């Protein structure tokens, strides 16, 4: 199984379009969205290509390949227009033998993690900053950054997760880094 992981679209239509094109180019089986799909939030500037109605149409068109968790900017009103569930606070998925706990990151994060065993993964968005960090106890913290509003001089990015490795790519598909699990 090949997972693409993205977060923090914040209603940016062109970024959403590029993200979905990347999903096709990468031949990902599923796209795991870590929240903040339509609204830009009070702390972010309006994205350059802010068009949440276009984002709704694009995401609904890919609904059979999406798994999503709720971000701090996602609301019940958003769920009314989206044809796939977005209100779950977290999701637990398997990647081969590896368990992945996915949440937006505003509540469950490296400072307040769930119980994770060695080799398991905590996936968060929220910070808009990509991360690959080994944690005390041997579990791994991953963040795909943001596809629309990157922070800390990062690029618009997403993760590709395979059984033995993960890659961070920019929206054009250029690899930023690749890590073998267990490194």
TrEMBL record:
It holds the Pfam family Metallophos_2. Keywords: Hydrolase, Metal-binding. The keyword tRNA-binding does not apply. Residues 1-161 form the Calcineurin-like phosphoesterase domain. Transmembrane segments: none annotated. InterPro entries: Calcineurin-like_PHP_lpxH, Metallo-depent_PP-like, Phosphodiesterase_MJ0936/Vps29. Its EC number is 3.1.4.-. Its cofactor is a divalent metal cation. GO terms for molecular function: hydrolase activity. It is an enzyme of class 3 (hydrolase). Belongs to the metallophosphoesterase superfamily. YfcE family. NCBIfam families: PRK09453.1, yfcE. This is Phosphoesterase. It comes from Bariatricus massiliensis.
